[in-house]
């Protein structure tokens, strides 16, 4: 029964985290997948742009799904497509100022939600838990999807 003692709690926590994420994103009119794409561009640093292929790698979706997502985000004014100066046939996807603001605000809301979840643990306990979870998830992070 030992695995259930741990993994059932991890599963329950995942459901609470999913709810917290959805709440944080919905307050900024974002879906979780939109946040993932926007924050991938944000992490790229100025000028906050990546090729669609780079976005595929970071978000782990198919090219058709990514095309659809870029179209929808562009329609909302959160990203824009630009010609790739290094490849005449290529495009770059760039975060617009509105997309950057929305991603930053949603991230702040998410961090607030997650801090509340972790508030009952001390800084030392949070560090220990992060190290244990890193150790537990490491084998999955190295498996090609």
From TrEMBL:
A Pfam family that the UniProt record links to this protein: MarR_2
HTH marR-type domain mapped to chain residues: 3-138
Gene3D superfamilies, alphabetized: Winged helix-like DNA-binding domain superfamily/Winged helix DNA-binding domain (1.10.10.10)
Record's keyword terms, sorted: DNA-binding, Transcription, Transcription regulation
SUPFAM superfamilies registered for this protein in UniProt: Winged helix' DNA-binding domain
Superkingdom of this protein's organism: Bacteria
Protein name stated in the entry: MarR family transcriptional regulator TamR
């Amino acid at each position: 029964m030992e695995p259930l003692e741990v993994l059932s709690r991890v599963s329950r926590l995942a459901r609470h985290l999913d709810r917290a994420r959805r709440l944080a994103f919905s307050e900024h009119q974002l879906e979780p997948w939109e946040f993932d794409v926007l924050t991938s561009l944000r992490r790229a640093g100025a000028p906050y742009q990546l090729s669609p292929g780079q976005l595929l790698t970071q978000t782990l979706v198919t090219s058709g799904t990514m095309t659809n997502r870029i179209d929808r985000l562009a329609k909302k004014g959160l990203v824009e497509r630009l010609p790739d100066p290094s490849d005449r046939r290529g495009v770059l996807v760039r975060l617009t100022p509105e997309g950057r603001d929305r991603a930053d605000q949603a991230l702040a809301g998410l961090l607030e939600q997650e801090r509340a979840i972790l508030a009952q643990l001390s800084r030392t306990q949070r560090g220990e838990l992060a190290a244990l979870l890193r150790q537990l998830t490491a084998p999955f992070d190295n498996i090609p999807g």
